[in-house]
């Protein structure tokens, strides 16, 4: 069973500090390398019993040391093993040199490796700490291995993959499986890293949990263990107003579909009442297409103020299919003390008015959640997108702190970030969520959780996870309507 501590993602630089702290606590660091290499060998034998030969590719650092331990153990188990080394094995130092000397193998140059059918590559060239483009010699081997589809078992992280950003540094192995130690790194979950790692196994090599906990930080995988305590729980006395009233703003008559999907998803996610606030000209369209969802006319700021005068109207979703960017800016300016999800057009409306949005968010007492996809994120935070040195997590954290809002940076690796620095990476979204209207459904789920009283960060994180679960439930070939009908409350 997964524990909360297992969900944390450890930056490679922090992982190096953890290793050092383990050594300072009295644990011989070579013992950690020995256990890591044994874990790699065990995984290779377990998952590839049909291998004709294990080819261990080693580098000059501790990752290479893990590889030499694995090679020695595989030889002791009777497996056929070949070892190739990047650079001069004689230049190895410290624990990696000890592992090399104890292995008893004489490695061949990395560039001499010619993949054969029946090989299984154990990639121990570079680990998660790589920060520069890989050398051409390794790039050619990666290309050759990929060309005949030799299975790759990566040690820590596929060589060439940045452990912080999940981005290839020139090129990267595409592993079938990755064996890492103690904790995953951001690059294991961020795309395209997640796809390049294949199935990830995390082995405990004996670093005390107190050492890990002291360096855990605030980044983790999105999981109910993180937020379920903050979600509302229905009791015998619950009624519709206690479950919250969510208002969803609609666009013109020809563009009401987005708000309808948002509203339906909100009802399915547990909101007690959902009302679509719509231009009068769209009332007839909505009246014949809505049943459990109510509607109310709303053409301008005066209408909105009348609606806000009723204190029960505390939560809003603005943006899906809204269309009128000027009116979107006006409405946002009036919602500073409410709980608000801003999506789609409500984000685009502030492309040239970013500071006005951030000032509105930070000056009021409300709870704001922004849900941009990549293009919308670039409209609000173009400087962060241009900075190739930032990971998606880091972009989301900076954007959230700058705007004052909880940020849902959407994609296959959606990142949820809070202004206080917390961040979660979502992993349960199926590819079928890449369909028109999917984001409208997500906005409705988050709005429903806000309406029920969940804090903004937890509402956003839970909403993203529930959205992924609904996608699995709806199945391949789904439409956004199917997705909305597949939404369920948590628990």
- Low-confidence blocks of residues: none
Mean pLDDT: 96
Share of helix, binned: 40-55%
How many beta-strand segments? 17
How much strand content do the residues show? 5-15%
**Helix segment tally:** 21
How would you characterize the largest beta sheet? 10 strands, mixed
Q: Indicate the structural class.
A: alpha/beta
Radius of gyration: 26 Å
With strands numbered from the N-terminus, the spatial order across the biggest sheet is: 8-17-16-15-14-13-12-9-10-11
How far apart are the first and last residues' alpha carbons, in Å? 17 Å
Basic shape: elongated
Description of the structure:
The protein has 491 residues and is of the alpha/beta class. It is 41% helix and 15% strand. It has 21 helices and 17 strands. The protein has helices at 12-24, 29-47, 62-76, 94-103, 136-147, 186-189, 193-197, 209-214, 224-227, 257-268, 283-287, 301-308, 325-333, 345-348, 354-363, 374-380, 382-386, 392-403, 438-451, 456-474, 480-486; strands at 53-58, 81-85, 108-109, 119-124, 152-155, 177-181, 199-203, 219-221, 245-249, 273-278, 294-297, 315-318, 339-342, 367-370, 406-409, 415-417, 423-425. Strands 8-17-16-15-14-13-12-9-10-11 form a ten-stranded mixed sheet, with helices on both faces. A seven-stranded parallel sheet has the order 3-2-1-4-5-6-7, covered by helices on one side. Helix 2 (29-47) crosses helix 4 (94-103), helix 10 packs across helix 19 (438-451) and helix 10 (257-268) runs parallel beside helix 21.
